[in-house]
Amino acid sequence: MSLLIAMFSFSLAMSISPGPVNMVIVSSGARYGIRKTFAFVSGATIGFTLLLLFIGLGFYRVMDVYPHFLKYLAVAGALFIIYMGYLIASSKPVLNINEPNPKEHNQPTFMQGFLLQWLNPKAWIACVAGVSLFSMPNSHQAFLTFSLIYFLVCYLSLFAWSVLGNKVTILLSSEFRLRLFNHSMGGLLIITACFLLYSQFS
Question: What is the Cβ-side half-sphere exposure of residue 75, based on CA atoms within 13 angstroms?
Answer without folding.
Answer: 5
